[in-house]
Amino acid sequence: MPLRNKIRSHRHADPSSHQSRSTPPAADRPWSPARLALTAFFAVDGFLFAAWVVRIPDVRSQVSATHSALGLALLCLSVGAVLTMPLVGRLCLRYGSRPVTVGSLALLSLAVPLPAHAHSVLSLGGVLLLFGAGYGGANVAMNSAAVDLVAQLRRPVMPSFHAGYSLGGLLGAGFGGLLADRLTTAWALALGGLLGLAVTVGSGVVLLRSPAAPMVAPERSGGSTGAAEAATDSTAAGPTAAATTGAPVRLLVLLLGLTALCTAYGEGAIADWTTLHLTDDVHASAGTAAAGYAAYAFAMTSGRVGGTWLSIRLGQNRLMLLGGLTAAAGMLLAALAPSVPAAIGGFVLVGLGLANLFPLAIARAGATGGPQGVALASTLGYGGMLIGPVVIGFLADAVGLPLALTTVAVAATAAALLPLTVGRR
Q1: How many CB atoms lie within 10 A of CB 229?
Q2: How far is CA 60 from CA 56, 70, 116, 128, in A?
Q3: Domain 32-209+226-424 maps to which CATH number in 1.20.1250.20, 1.10.510.10, 3.40.50.720, 3.50.30.60?
Q4: Contact 353/326 with Cβ under 8 angstroms?
Q5: What is the pLDDT of residue 181?
Q6: In whole angstroms, what separates CA 289 from the centre of its chain?
Q7: Which of 88, 183, 200, 321 could form a disulfide with 140 if both were Cys (CB 3.0 to 4.6 A apart)?
Q8: Long-range contacts of range 211-214, CB-CB < 8 Å, 24 or more positions apart?
Q9: What is the DSSP track for 105-140?
Q10: Is 337 left (phi over 0), alpha (psi -120 to 50) or beta?
Q11: How far apart are CA 411 and CA 327, in angstroms?
């Protein structure tokens, strides 16, 4: 048999795919309308969160909060997210992840302008609960939908969705910095909310109308290497494994969730405290502080754009190990450097290091446990954001913000080592 016929026969030998000749495999159409729409949802999620982040110093002054009081208010955002995530996981199982994604992003867009109208720490905490509910729900629903598409494509493309999130964060921070002296906080967040609603409507129509492609079973031939090997390793295994392995699956999802927790601790600390560290400790201007967060977001975006390629070339465990150690070194530099350029350089290293830790952990949890695996790992992951603001805030009052931020280096090191345990199991 000619080699070309052998390859064609191998690709269509699996009867479980149920695909006709007129319908190309999902892997042949990597940028389908559904994937583009879902990437847009990730991007607007990052944009809205960054639009809020760059206005935290203004909101802190508006409500006259100390570091610890602000930490408690920011805790409410994480509480809203963590309380919502398990519920959203069940909603995704019942109604599908795509409609839940649309609803969650709509709620987030409506909640974004509200912090600008808070005039006490208590009222700020109340609106951040609603903000967190939309943010947490969106992240579980979007990641569940992304896990389905990753399994269909049979390639570890989860970092590309999170690259959309980081790109949105970069744009949100960039525009926030440019408009910091031109628009009030109320106008800036209101415009962000309107943009979020517009993208939610436009991308939501595409996402809901796009048919869900049939799940494609991973190829099992012994000769597959490189991309196919990386795809079937963990991100394209499909959620059905949870039904057959029971307790081992829960243990693996728990370990992956702890990896996400350590990563989210670092991401949350940087999101909430970067601009304050640069303005208060390194004496940067408000525009430069926003540029510092933008540099971090750009580094994370770049790392996630190359995440699929790096996952295939290095392997996911090695990529996560190197990323965690790079983030730890960068955080020590960012926290302790006395100059603005050195501190921003440290944040760039943190962005590159953390880039692929969270998406790969969530993708592997979803491939193992389905939407409930995503919900559990996301809940644990965003638990890092739950404890991060409080820990950093109280430590900042006790020993100073720079030393408090060094705890991110400890968490990043743990995130680097935990995947090795997951790999062995």
Answers
A1: 12
A2: 6, 7, 10, 13
A3: 1.20.1250.20
A4: yes
A5: 78
A6: 22
A7: 88
A8: 212/34, 212/96, 212/98, 212/148, 213/26, 213/32, 213/152, 214/17, 214/18, 214/19, 214/152
A9: HHHHHHHTTGGGG--SHHHHHHHHHHHHHHHHHHHH
A10: beta
A11: 10
| CA distance to 111, 291, 401, per residue, from 336 (Å) | 35, 19, 10
Buried/exposed code over 275-299 (b: 16+ C-beta within 10 A; e: otherwise) = bbbbbbbbebebebbbbbbbbbbbb
pLDDT at 178 over 50: yes
Per the CB < 8 A criterion, the answer to whether 74 and 127 are in contact is no
pLDDT (0 to 100) of residue 30: 64
Question: Are the beta carbons of 412 and 89 closer than 8 angstroms?
Answer: no
Measured at the alpha carbon of residue 129, what is the angle toward residues 134 and 202, in degrees to the nearest 5? 20
Instruction: Identify how many contiguous H helices and E strands the chain contains and give both numbers.
Output: 18, 0
Specify whether the CB–CB gap between 349 and 386 falls below 8 A: no
Reduced to 3 states (helix: H, G, I; strand: E, B; else coil), residue 224 is coil
Contact 21, 191 (CB under 8 A): no
Least confident of 19-23, 34-38, 137-141: 19-23
Specify the amino acid at residue 100.
V
Question: Which pLDDT tens digit goes with each residue over 385-409?
Answer: 777 777 888 899 889 999 999 999 9
Q: What CA–CA distance (Å, rounded) separates 12 from 340?
A: 57
